[in-house]
Amino acid sequence: MATLPDGALMQRAAAGLAAVCARILRGADNASPGMDWRGGGQVTRPARGGPYGARVVLLVGSGDNGGDALWAGARLARRGARVDAVVLRHDRVHESGLSAFLDAGGRVLSDDDGPLTPAAEQAVRKADIVLDGILGIGGKGGLRDDAAYLAALASADAGLVIAVDLPSGIDADTGETPGAHVRADVTVTFGTHKVGLLIDPAAEAAGHIELVDIGLGPYLPRPAVEMLEHGDVAARIPVPGRHADKYRRGVLGMLAGSTRYRGAALLSVGGAVHGGAGMVRYAGPREVSAMVLERWPEAVTAPDVEHTDRVQAWAVGSGLGDDRGDEAEAALASGLPVLVDADGLRHLPAELTCPALLTPHAGELARMLDVDRGDVEARRLHHAREAARRWGATVLLKGSTTLVVSPDGRVRVNSTGTPALATAGSGDVLAGLGGALLAAGLDPLDAGSVAAHIHGVAGQVAAGTAGQPAASDVLDAVPGAMVSLVAAHDLL
Ligand SMILES: NC(=O)C1=CN([C@@H]2O[C@H](COP(=O)(O)OP(=O)(O)OC[C@H]3O[C@@H](n4cnc5c(N)ncnc54)[C@H](OP(=O)(O)O)[C@@H]3O)[C@@H](O)[C@H]2O)[C@@H](O)CC1
Ligand SMILES: [K+]
């Protein structure tokens, strides 16, 4: 801002915003160079042939977010759209934006007494597009009274809701939703993706995300949250060299499954085998080991952790049950990198002395931190950070947006998640994958985020062929997912 004339960034933002609205109104293909990280993302749009004659309503808050909406509204009005503004506070409105809007033929439907006039409500209900310019990055807390009512009206009754920069009322920095907020079909965000657009529950309110480049790139600090793309993941997948042998590729010790949860052993060993482990040494009861060997003859088995030597990392806990805590503790005391999943998380010492990757879901993290599960779901980043700090470990919090948080503060959010992965045994596959990558020498942050990415791609592939895939289908899709990631990378 300091290097540019006053208002230049807002003009870039408004121009980009108006262009997206015009494109949507034209019914043009929605594919864009921006990131639609939720995949698919086709927007049901009011195809009108263009802005001319379209009904657009602006919800205008008291800050610059409202200014963006007004300037974009002025551009659409000049292209023949019928643009009405509902101004939340007439005593505090972006002045130059408002005069440009009025000069372009826009109308204001609210009055000094408040925004909720009958004309305003009627216009929102009939709109082709509602532009949500109530709050942007300056918003604090959820929407209040009139704004909350308008947000609900727009989300329920109106045409397409397009959020300006972010859906008003979400927390831009955490992904929390402290109160009432807009639910958008599309979010047009400026300069950089906001953390809140990437982490649930707020991310869910953002819909399809379009990034408008306003030239901030060279000035941005290191991002608070990273999201790996396919190429980033492919570059991190260990590829065996000419002199590879099973030890160089990484031997993983696996303490998982039990006579009660036999499937967990098969799925997690399978995840490790397909994840590229040079060898998997399975430690478990004789009848489970026999099943493992039948399905995965490349594995070797031993009765327990004590008799499992020459491993480079451990994966501990998937389907383990309650009675092998001593062995879990022994693996955790080995000093080797350890992935800890499910029942293994009950046996964490107060302080970890090894590089660790903890892979709880929200319920398990709630138990670890002695808080409510609902609170973990509402404040995913906060609680994952808290656990990473408390144990000095990398925490992979599974869920609709899987987070991987390193104790040094780095955060990655996975872009490939799919509801198809929310099925019994899916986490066992992930644990095997992550364990194999730890054994191959990736640090816990890379091992966790690469495993989550591959797992998500496998889930998408499996959903594409099996519809509602089982965890075994996801496991079967892992090799293909890895091939497609690496092949795409080689083509870059
Ligand atoms: N920075 C840049 O480079 C660029 C930024 N740009 C744009 O600017 C936006 C940020 O603008 P901003 O800073 O003016 O804040 P904004 O989000 O409009 O809201 C602040 C106002 O809302 C009020 N308010 C707060 N909470 C509230 C609540 N819960 N319920 C009701 N009211 C509440 C608050 O009042 P206060 O709390 O101060 O009394 C204040 O009046 C950004 O998101 C992007 O769109 C682009 O133009 C491109 C360049
Ligand atoms: K907004």
UniProtKB/TrEMBL annotation:
<keyword id="KW-0413">Isomerase</keyword>
<feature type="binding site">
    <location>
        <position position="427"/>
    </location>
    <ligand>
        <name>AMP</name>
    </ligand>
</feature>
<dbReference type="GO" id="GO:0046496">
    <property type="term" value="P:nicotinamide nucleotide metabolic process"/>
</dbReference>
<dbReference type="GO" id="GO:0052855">
    <property type="term" value="F:ADP-dependent NAD(P)H-hydrate dehydratase activity"/>
</dbReference>
<keyword id="KW-0547">Nucleotide-binding</keyword>
<dbReference type="InterPro" id="IPR036652">
    <property type="entry name" value="YjeF_N_dom_sf"/>
</dbReference>
<feature type="binding site">
    <location>
        <begin position="398"/>
        <end position="402"/>
    </location>
    <ligand>
        <name>AMP</name>
    </ligand>
</feature>
<dbReference type="GO" id="GO:0052856">
    <property type="term" value="F:NAD(P)HX epimerase activity"/>
</dbReference>
<dbReference type="InterPro" id="IPR017953">
    <property type="entry name" value="Carbohydrate_kinase_pred_CS"/>
</dbReference>
<dbReference type="Pfam" id="PF01256">
    <property type="entry name" value="Carb_kinase"/>
</dbReference>
<comment type="function">
    <text>Bifunctional enzyme that catalyzes the epimerization of the S- and R-forms of NAD(P)HX and the dehydration of the S-form of NAD(P)HX at the expense of ADP, which is converted to AMP. This allows the repair of both epimers of NAD(P)HX, a damaged form of NAD(P)H that is a result of enzymatic or heat-dependent hydration.</text>
</comment>
<dbReference type="InterPro" id="IPR000631">
    <property type="entry name" value="CARKD"/>
</dbReference>
<feature type="binding site">
    <location>
        <position position="319"/>
    </location>
    <ligand>
        <name>(6S)-NADPHX</name>
    </ligand>
</feature>
<keyword id="KW-0521">NADP</keyword>
<dbReference type="Pfam" id="PF03853">
    <property type="entry name" value="YjeF_N"/>
</dbReference>
<keyword id="KW-0067">ATP-binding</keyword>
<keyword id="KW-0456">Lyase</keyword>
<keyword id="KW-0511">Multifunctional enzyme</keyword>
<feature type="binding site">
    <location>
        <position position="428"/>
    </location>
    <ligand>
        <name>(6S)-NADPHX</name>
    </ligand>
</feature>
<dbReference type="InterPro" id="IPR004443">
    <property type="entry name" value="YjeF_N_dom"/>
</dbReference>
<dbReference type="InterPro" id="IPR030677">
    <property type="entry name" value="Nnr"/>
</dbReference>
<keyword id="KW-0520">NAD</keyword>
<dbReference type="GO" id="GO:0005524">
    <property type="term" value="F:ATP binding"/>
</dbReference>
<dbReference type="GO" id="GO:0046872">
    <property type="term" value="F:metal ion binding"/>
</dbReference>
<keyword id="KW-0630">Potassium</keyword>
<keyword id="KW-0479">Metal-binding</keyword>
<feature type="binding site">
    <location>
        <position position="264"/>
    </location>
    <ligand>
        <name>(6S)-NADPHX</name>
    </ligand>
</feature>
<protein>
    <recommendedName>
        <fullName>ADP-dependent (S)-NAD(P)H-hydrate dehydratase</fullName>
        <ecNumber>4.2.1.136</ecNumber>
    </recommendedName>
</protein>
<feature type="binding site">
    <location>
        <position position="361"/>
    </location>
    <ligand>
        <name>(6S)-NADPHX</name>
    </ligand>
</feature>
<comment type="function">
    <text>Catalyzes the dehydration of the S-form of NAD(P)HX at the expense of ADP, which is converted to AMP. Together with NAD(P)HX epimerase, which catalyzes the epimerization of the S- and R-forms, the enzyme allows the repair of both epimers of NAD(P)HX, a damaged form of NAD(P)H that is a result of enzymatic or heat-dependent hydration.</text>
</comment>
<comment type="similarity">
    <text>Belongs to the NnrD/CARKD family.</text>
</comment>
<dbReference type="GO" id="GO:0110051">
    <property type="term" value="P:metabolite repair"/>
</dbReference>
<comment type="similarity">
    <text>In the C-terminal section; belongs to the NnrD/CARKD family.</text>
</comment>
<dbReference type="InterPro" id="IPR029056">
    <property type="entry name" value="Ribokinase-like"/>
</dbReference>
<comment type="subunit">
    <text>Homotetramer.</text>
</comment>
<feature type="domain" description="YjeF N-terminal">
    <location>
        <begin position="1"/>
        <end position="222"/>
    </location>
</feature>
<feature type="domain" description="YjeF C-terminal">
    <location>
        <begin position="229"/>
        <end position="485"/>
    </location>
</feature>
